[in-house]
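User: Assemble these into one structure.

Assistant: Restating your components, then the assembled model:
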Amino acid sequence: MKITGDMLIGAKSVRGRETTFYAVNPADGKKMEPAFGGGGEAEVREACELAWAAFDSYRETSLEARATFLETVAQKIMDLGDPLVERASAESGLPRARIEGERGRTVGQLRLFAGVVREGGWIEARIDPALPDRKPLPRPDQRQRHIPLGPVAVFGASNFPLAFSVAGGDTASALAAGCPVIVKAHSAHPGTSELVGRAVQAAVAECGLPEGVFSMVFGAGNSVGTALVSDWRIKAVGFTGSRRGGMALVSVAAARREPIPVYAEMSSINPVFLLPSALSSRAEALGKGYVASLNLGAGQFCTNPGIVLALDGPDLDRFLETAKAEVGNSAASTMLTPGIFAAYDEGVRKLSGNSKVRLLARGQACSGPNQCQTAVFETDAASFLSETDLQEEVFGASSLVIRCPDLETVRTVAEHLEGQLTATVQADESDLDAARMLLPVLERKAGRVLFNGWPTGVDVSHAMVHGGPFPSTADGRSTSVGTLAIRRFLRPVCYQDVPAGLLPEALKDGNPLKLWRRIGGEMGRD
Amino acid sequence: MKITGDMLIGAKSVRGRETTFYAVNPADGKKMEPAFGGGGEAEVREACELAWAAFDSYRETSLEARATFLETVAQKIMDLGDPLVERASAESGLPRARIEGERGRTVGQLRLFAGVVREGGWIEARIDPALPDRKPLPRPDQRQRHIPLGPVAVFGASNFPLAFSVAGGDTASALAAGCPVIVKAHSAHPGTSELVGRAVQAAVAECGLPEGVFSMVFGAGNSVGTALVSDWRIKAVGFTGSRRGGMALVSVAAARREPIPVYAEMSSINPVFLLPSALSSRAEALGKGYVASLNLGAGQFCTNPGIVLALDGPDLDRFLETAKAEVGNSAASTMLTPGIFAAYDEGVRKLSGNSKVRLLARGQACSGPNQCQTAVFETDAASFLSETDLQEEVFGASSLVIRCPDLETVRTVAEHLEGQLTATVQADESDLDAARMLLPVLERKAGRVLFNGWPTGVDVSHAMVHGGPFPSTADGRSTSVGTLAIRRFLRPVCYQDVPAGLLPEALKDGNPLKLWRRIGGEMGRD
């Protein structure tokens, strides 16, 4: 499939006339062909009109039809073959194997949501049968289902050009919920975006769905992005990126005549707690595991371990010795974009210049442009508590180890943290009392609490939560990874005494869809 | 129990020193004893500190203990006996029978949530067992439950001094979720608030819970209310009242360092659609039912039928003739407060002065102060579509009938409406095609769609939705009535490879709480 540089508005290819831009290969800093055209308000409006026109029909597709559509998208992405892998790798600087793995994750996630759609639990059907003899008033027949919110704007993320981009988690969960999607493609991987966008577009056509189910636009965040989030037809927003970018969208959404929810996943430093017994028994293994997690994807993961807390002492010194050696052996690796590299470089420079922070180790020297040279710093708890800046995320392989005098201080630092995507505890059997003391704090601070692992793996499962209290996300009541993500795009509707012939399938007597439903509050599959 | 005029901060009675105010009996406009003391930031801070201190312990109470607590609150409210009914009736102008019914609803709702807590479905436990042999990477053990958000600020509503006030739906659902509650009592019924507040306070003590589980403050919205919503310990807000009041809280919540969700139920005109065949076969019965619904509680219901849409013609004329007669026979009834009466009077005056609107009928003359004299107006679809003002809620018994030339125009007007709590359809068998055409619009616009009834009854059930798209609420993804309301105060947390000894009961192997859980995505009670 040829990359044209066009936007996809429903079934059409549309050339953006407002701006011209190119992808840049961060490994050599060079422009890649072809030129892409960024659009403006007119194209956004057209995409929104098409999405709105598609909504009532798409949201009532059968569970089977919608599931098949998601599976078709997955297949069409696989059918793109090697050119997709090559283009994504060139645009992102990420190695081929990583892109192949991410492609597997992306299509796996679409197929998982197909299964979720078929099972239908997300509809959360409830029926309270009429009680005509109830006193003082009869009870009407009441039935509840969840319906999709409406067209969703999805902003592709730079760091997962497939899994959190055009057909990534936000798009998969919104389409699964029954919402048309308009993607604002990320300018860091426009070719990858177009290829995947064309796969979705082809799936829409093949499945006989209205063309407005999917569109994809190129353009600047503060023009095309703002126009998209401002359009009255858009009813929710999915975003993964910086805190500044996320909060800008939150402001636009709140200023609308009808404010809408923004699911922005923004910023997290993912604390790791090394409890004393674990640190004593496996300081070296922990040091190795830590640096491996830190280096994954040049540190460009939302769940990158940005701070480590441990009791000061010889066990921590052993951990740091190993970490230093591992960092010293870490090859520099290309970052996603020159902009991300510049921000990383600036963040590391700021930490290096902070008198309360000491540089422990840096990775091997860079051999090309835009390379991340792993950095590990240390400080003490008192300094960390007094310097708000030290909580700021440095996106990339940079991490800060905090020496704490005692467990009570560890807890105090934990309480001092802002909301996080993850909190990790390294604990042996005899650390369980300390872990028990920490756990209530970590539950309040993070969306995922994990033991004896590293936070950088985010499984796409039913129990996953990739979300958390502000500022890790703009809405801590939800997740952007895993099957619960479908709920972000739904709202409940009650049908009272609605004639049988008008009831949606999910709420009909006899349970034709064989759903799990609550009848009079009792869960069952009637 | 004596009414003292004090606030309840944890286990203490605290005299507010910032302001002094009295309840006013709207039936005679006279002040009622005793004087109440409004508090300030210091008392708000103290209540928040106590709530925060109580949170970690209260949220881990057993399901049985929490359910018993809710039932104890219900019993203590009943134990207040007649003095509660008398005070609430005097402070609100609502008749005794209505207050008794509302008390039944209030304690019934607390008991319903006790049952919900015991059943435990709201935890939404999910377990994805480890797959150590999965390729390319092993899957860790992942478990998910929902935990409460934190202390919740509840703003009592004026129009249900029991059911949407101190121990009303917001408080019941927040306590059920495991959130401590701080109520900002409504100044229209402070004596009722104190009585009920003391019942809750006594239940907290009797159940051996930390005192901070419940506090209640008096004071002005823009000082005490703002201080409450601004406090970092408050993690969500429940509100029922005006659009202006709700949006003010939304702004305060959004401006916090950590923004929090505001569940504000604000404004709805609850369209009623009279379809042709129903109108033809039962114009008179519909006219009577309409005015009865309009007059309920002097029209001071969030679900009051504020607009009616029907095809112009002789059937509509018959409907209006009956409605006119019924309105003419409607006795004036006392409104909740002088302020609400003044706003109603102003709203009716504005409609009367609109040249595109015609006054059809008014109720009987007033016999005392602050009385609502039912008003029904008519206009045509073209005028309604051109005048945005006509969509504004007039709180009280005021309603506007819109003559439409055809069904397509009915649909156009429906599409033109803002978000609503309810949409009502009167339809006979031969109206079903017309109803089918309207239904997708109504689902998008409203939280509850009902047929052949009136919107003013809001059942407290499992399937109820009392919520809807903006501006009917600030967050259309939820309900403030019915058991699904518990979800507003919860968020998901994932536990990855957490040692068995640290897992919450709900997620343990062997399912000790006998919950419905999803294991590997499959619903069951293992």
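The longest strand of chain B covers residues 30-38.
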